[in-house]
Structure formats: C-alpha cells, structure tokens
Amino acid sequence: MARSVDSRSPQADEAQLARVPLCGSFALVLDELRGKKLCDLGCNQGHYLQFGGPGSLGLDVSDESLAACQARGLTVQKHDLNQLPLPLPDAAFEAVLLSHVLEHVKAPLAMLRECNRLLPLHGTLVIGLPIEDGLYSRLRMDYFGGREGHLYSFSLRNLDKLLGLCGFASQRVVCHLPRIGNRVSAWNQRLQDLFATKLYTLSAAYWCVARKTGQPALDHQLSDYFSR
Predict the structure, then answer these.
(1) What b-and-e string marks burial along 174-197, b requiring 16 or more CB atoms within 10 Å of the CB?
(2) Which of 9, 81, 112, 178 has the fewest CB atoms within 10 Å around its CB?
(3) Which residues contact 5 (CB under 8 A, 6 or more apart)?
(4) pTM for this structure?
(5) Model confidence over 162-177: pLDDT tens digits?
(6) Which of 153, 147, 148, 194 is nearest to 175 (CA)?
(7) Average pLDDT over all residues of the chain
(8) What is the rounded distance in angstroms from the CA atom of residue 69 to the CA atom of residue 2?
(9) Quick one: CATH architecture of 10-217?
C-alpha cells in the first residue's frame, strides 16, 4: 500500500516536499491529494504518489520508475498510458493525478474521459502542465522541438473547455514560477493570492485542480460546428 503522510509533523512534511519536482507550486495543491486514495497516472519515481493514502496506485511504463516506487513501498502497476481503457475499475479512487502526462499521450481527450471513469462524483483531478505560450518557454525552451517530447500544449482556456467536455469543472489554478516554484516558500502562496492566473505568462507550468461534476459529453456533442 502507498504510505500516508497524515501523521507526519509539518517539519518532516516540508522536508519531504523539498525533495520532489516543482515542490513550491506542488505544495499548494498537495492538500487535494494528501491521504486520499490516489491514482497517479505516469507516476515516475513516486515523488507525488508517496503522499497518497491507503489503496493508492501508480501507473507507469518505465521499469526503472516502477522499481524506484517499489523501493519506497508504493503500489504500482506497469501500463502504457496510450493503451486505453486503463486496467482499473470504475470510481475506484478519490483523486487522480496527471503530472506532465497529458501533453505526451496520443489522445488527451480520451485520457480525461478515463480520469472521469476512475472517479466518483465530486472526485478530484489534479493536472500539471507545461506552458508553451509564456515568456519562460519562449526564452528557455523549444517546446515542440526539444527533448521533452511534447505532442500538445494546453492554454488555460483550452484546458477549461476540455475539462467541461469530459465532465469536470475547474476549481483553481496554481502557476509555477521559475526558481520560486522550485522550492517550498511562503512566497508561492502570497504571489498566488495576489495575482492568481495573471502569473500565467511569466510561469513555466501550472497545476489545475478540478472536480468531477458529471459524465463526459458524447462524441457527437464535442463540437457544435454542424449545428450552426
């Protein structure tokens, strides 16, 4: 079983957080996942999965990542996320995490539908995404030509539309500012409180917290083009 960190002291929890990727911004969405029965799709080495509660599960295609998770005592399963449906039962988890996965899979809309299937009504979906059209990406990253292997990019407006089509409602967005977002700091929360999504164009990535509000739209409802 994945270990829960509910009983840890705040100091120990912060020390654990400091060792995970994007820790400063992730700290601001951690309470959406902490101690819950979590499905981490593309769990990597369990950096985020370790904060889930009993019954949590990670899926990844990398043997190296799976071995690292198992060394931490985390429950994981090998699976290629491009192969849908996922080998998991309906409404089996309280929360689903997609951290820098959606921009790599061949069918993002189908993946979001699968996330809907894995959650009960009002279940939590947390998505982490890089930003293509921000200042950081323009100066520091070749978004589609670099080694990251990005297939898609998702603006705030685009993601909000896709979430709505897949039975989710976006609740809040946390922007990941370069340097500041890479460490646990009270400044992350202060800046989010003051500027919220106005930080988007200066950020390298963002987290979106969404809730399941219903079932995905049917295929013929994805576009209203032919009804005009």
Answers:
(1) bbbbeeebbebeeebeebbeeeee
(2) 9
(3) 13, 16, 34, 35, 50, 51
(4) 0.92
(5) 999 999 999 999 999 9
(6) 194
(7) 92
(8) 9
(9) 3-Layer(aba) Sandwich (3.40)
Which stretches does DSSP call E strand in the chain?
38-41, 57-60, 76-78, 95-99, 124-130, 168-176, 205-212
Q: What is the DSSP string of 103-124?
A: TTSS-HHHHHHHHHHHS-TT-E
Positive or negative: CA dihedral 154, 159, 165, 168? positive
**Cis (ω within 30 of 0) for the bond into 85?**
yes
Q: Do residues 86 and 113 make contact, with C-beta atoms less than 8 angstroms apart? A: no
Given a cut of 50, the residues of the chain with pLDDT beneath it are: 1-10
Q: ∠177-182-187 over CA atoms, to 5°? A: 65
Residues contacting 97, CB < 8 A, separation 6+? 33, 38, 39, 40, 41, 48, 49, 126, 127, 128
Between CA 170 and CA 160 the distance in angstroms is: 6
Q: Is 155:203 a contact under the CB 8 Å cutoff?
A: no
- Provide the sign of the torsion angle of the four alpha carbons 212, 131, 181, 42, taken in this order: positive
Tokens of 30: 């951690």
